[in-house]
Amino acid sequence: MGGKCGLFQYADGIDKLLMLLGSLGSIGDGLMTPLNMIILSSLIDDFGTADDSFSNKIVDEYALKLLYAAVGVGVSAFIDSHLPSSPVSIRLWPDCSFFLSWRLALVSFPFSLGFVIPGVAFGSLLMKLAMKMKDTYGIAGSIVEQAISSIQTVYSYVGESQTVSRCSRALEECMKLGLRQGFTKGLLIGSMGMVYVAWSFESWAGSLLVANRGESRGRVFISAVSLVLGGLSCIAALPNLSIMIEAASKIFELINRTPEIDSEDTKGRVLAYVRGDIEFKEVTLSYPSIPEVQVLQNICLKVKSGKTVGIVGGSGSGKSTIISLLERLGLVNQEPALFATSIKENILFGNEGAMVVEAAKASNAHEFIVSLPNGYNTHVGQLGFQLSGGQKQRIAIARALIKDPRILLPDEATSALDAESERLVQDAIDQVSQGRTTIFIAHRLTTIRKVDKIIVLQSGIIVETGFHDKLMQINEGGGGVYFNMVKLQQSTSRNTTDSPYHYKEATSYLRGQYDNTSKFPFFARSSWQNSPGNTPFSPAISTSYAPSIQTYSFCDGDYEYSEISNSTHQRPSTWHLFHMNAPEWNRALLGCLGAAIFGALQPAFAFCLGSVVSTYLINDSSKLKSEAKLYSLMFLTIDIISFFANLIQHYNFAVMGERLIRDCGYQQMLTWYDPLLEIECPCSFRFLLVLP
Ligand SMILES: Nc1ncnc2c1ncn2[C@@H]1O[C@H](COP(=O)(O)OP(=O)(O)OP(=O)(O)O)[C@@H](O)[C@H]1O
């Protein structure tokens, strides 16, 4: 344990001292109940043999003993680790029962295991179910998360019903697991009723020991109490122990992991000055996931410091792979990732105290930044969603520039932009690439006409090299690869400009097709134009729809919708909420019934337990035995009732809870389509009704 691989491998001296103090405290804390038990056993004996001499003096004596025990335990508990049940106390319970009455402890020991075994078995089953449920809820959650983060795409492809049904399928799976979990929980807590079986046996066996063997009444009774409590402590502590061991092994696995590429490794050559010359010498590369495919084959490429190179080629030809091999040198991605902070912080990333405005001016970003209400302090939002693609790219260029890289690698930086943004970004790149080695990847071949060298890639092989005019002159068999790419792009761009079929119309057409067939009322009114989700992008259109907003309620599996004012919506009446809960009434009643029965068993159990103590004090041994038998039978009856009461209670509440979670999740999916509505989800009221 204390060795290099043990549980305490990362503990220093202070940690070990604290753990030692904690352990000592734990021993003291664990002594509390056995000490009390020993004191109480004497008290019961003295009470049983009491005559008129059972005076205040004896009472004072026991009160003082208990006070001393309490002070000692209080001090120990203060320095204890405060685990719900420390291993020390578990260890002391059985010791105490053996000390008080070894015969009873010996014969009753199997009964203690009787409720430890089902506890451990059902407990681990519950744990497995909980892990499965976590994964399944994770799937449902990721569907929602993905849909929300790409809400515009979901809208424009009319993917609402598909997304809702995917999410509800995942939630159905969660519900099935939840029901199994409820049933197992019922079995687990029901099987805890084995504690009554232990009581049943111990009160009967104890009566025999008192009547036939003349054992001390107090010691026999308290020995039985210790045995039961010892078993219960085991059950309470086992999950803690297993969680501790499991957590420790996972943490150590993480700490001990040796990454293949260690970014903190100081070995290797550190260049004092990067001139900017790049050379690929017969580079061949395969990705580990597909080792048989050579993504780059025998690449030889020389770029002199300060020169510009353009890499072109079809999709999957290996352009980005070349750039990936050169990363960390000043990269401008296709989709630049901005951080959810201000523009200034984004530009400064990795280089505090640099000239932000100069970098923004050089990247053509200054003008648009100062036109924003908060200028350089404008928050760009998560991943920069509050900025246009071109604006993001110009900020990314400023960020790259601020590091003053010798090598700049713009990866299709202008591929997703309109003509005006493309011009601004291209100007920025042209400006900042002056005096730096720059390797462009561009799908729009017009952007690399002026570069010093163009590399044409096909399936990871360089098939042509040269500047634009030279490559355009290759005319073998209908032209070279680059020549054909340029021609194809020219004709495609002409066709696109001539086409009257615009994106918005295409989208409206697409939605119209689906809207007619949609089975959800939501989608019937959910057109591109009046969609509240579309508001930020088309305010003029959406305001004309604003006064009338629709909402939905989920009732007996059917959707109702009604028009309400967007400013006022009434809170539903309590009766209405009860009515909405109608499908759950029978489950709620059964669950409450189970809970009430189990609750009622506790006073019955307390009565039986108290009666057993009184019975042990009877001097007539045959009466003692017959009464003890009666209470023994009563404990058994309590056990059986408790098992079924718990099963009924936990299963029915699980059914109810899981249905509510499913419905709420489902309702949530419908609600988030309309960010403006802020409908209070009716199911949340149902939750509130259930939770108390
Ligand atoms: N991480 C990876 N694991 C396995 N294969 C990969 C990985 N990244 C890329 N590839 C494969 O390597 C090949 C080259 O990919 P690469 O991204 O370099 O092409 P590209 O020319 O940049 O394509 P595009 O123009 O579409 O971005 C492709 O066949 C791709 O499927």
From TrEMBL:
GO CC term (a single one): membrane
One Pfam family named in its UniProt record: ABC_tran
SMART domains (UniProt xref): AAA
Species of origin: Solanum bulbocastanum (Wild potato)
SUPFAM superfamilies: ABC transporter transmembrane region, P-loop containing nucleoside triphosphate hydrolases
PROSITE patterns per record: ABC_TM1F, ABC_TRANSPORTER_1, ABC_TRANSPORTER_2
Domain ABC transmembrane type-1: 98-247
Residues covered by the ABC transporter domain: 278-484
Chain ranges passing through the membrane: 17-41, 62-79, 99-126, 182-201, 221-241, 588-618, 630-648
Keyword Heme found: no
InterPro entries referenced in this protein's UniProt entry, alphabetically: AAA+_ATPase, ABC1_TM_dom, ABC1_TM_sf, ABC_transporter-like_ATP-bd, ABC_transporter-like_CS, P-loop_NTPase
Protein name (database record): Uncharacterized protein
Molecular function per GO: ABC-type transporter activity; ATP binding; ATP hydrolysis activity
Domain of life: Eukaryota
UniProt keyword list: ATP-binding, Glycoprotein, Membrane, Nucleotide-binding, Repeat, Transmembrane, Transmembrane helix, Transport
PANTHER family, A to Z: ABC TRANSPORTER DOMAIN-CONTAINING PROTEIN (PTHR45136)
Family: Belongs to the ABC transporter superfamily. ABCB family. Multidrug resistance exporter (TC 3.A.1.201) subfamily.
